Amino acid sequence: MPNSSLHISFATDAAKVFNHPLLQNYAGSYILGSTAPDIRNLAGWDRYQTHFFDLKHDTPGKSIEGLFKHHPELAEAANLG
Q1: What is the DSSP string of 37-70?
Q2: Cα–Cα dist 57/16, whole Å
Q3: Helix pair angle (27-35, 4-18), 10° resolution
Q4: Which of 15, 29, 41, 71 could form a disulfide with 23 if both were Cys (CB 3.0 to 4.6 A apart)?
Q5: Tens of pLDDT along 8-20?
């Protein structure tokens, strides 16, 4: 598992690439969100609950599919602003 600093670094790099106003206007929430899935370690949750894929059986791209399956409202850009 990457540490929090690496998650933040990836998120910061992605924000620069996408250059979307929401990522700039809500940078604190965005950065916190990039580390939030690893709260599972403190909560004692199964990794699937926060990452939406199984490391042993799925490819990382499956996490996006799993996220949208569990939270379809996130797939619509109009719902994000």
Answers
A1: GGGHHHHT--THHHHSS-TTTS-TTHHHHHHHHH
A2: 32
A3: 140
A4: 15
A5: 999 999 999 999 9
